[in-house]
Amino acid sequence: MVQIIMAQIAIGCGLFFIVVGAVGVLRMPDVYTRLHAAGMTDTMGAGFLLIGLALNEGLTLIAVRLILIWIFLLFTSPVSTHALARAALHAGIQPLQIEKKEVRS
Predict the structure, then answer these.
(1) pLDDT tens for residues 29-50?
(2) Are 10 and 52 in contact (CB under 8 A)?
(3) Which of 33, 81, 85, 101 could join 28 in a cystine, given CB atoms 3.0 to 4.6 angstroms apart?
């Protein structure tokens, strides 16, 4: 019973991160902040989902495969996000600069 509850909590957290990341990708102003939202979605959302599915499955070969996929995502997601950010920078896409307003006393 505890295992099922933990699996449901992990899956719920994963869905939360995926929805927030998708909203972030749609609402963020430039490429670099969108990459941050997409990277967090991939790492946190998919990670929680995979852990929840592995907990739901129990001690089987499928659970081991899900954990291995999660470990693979932990290494590849930050690397791919970094590579995309460097490619955008080399392509000449500048980060959005927000101008500070002067505060008058």
Answers:
(1) 888 888 888 888 888 899 999 9
(2) yes
(3) 33
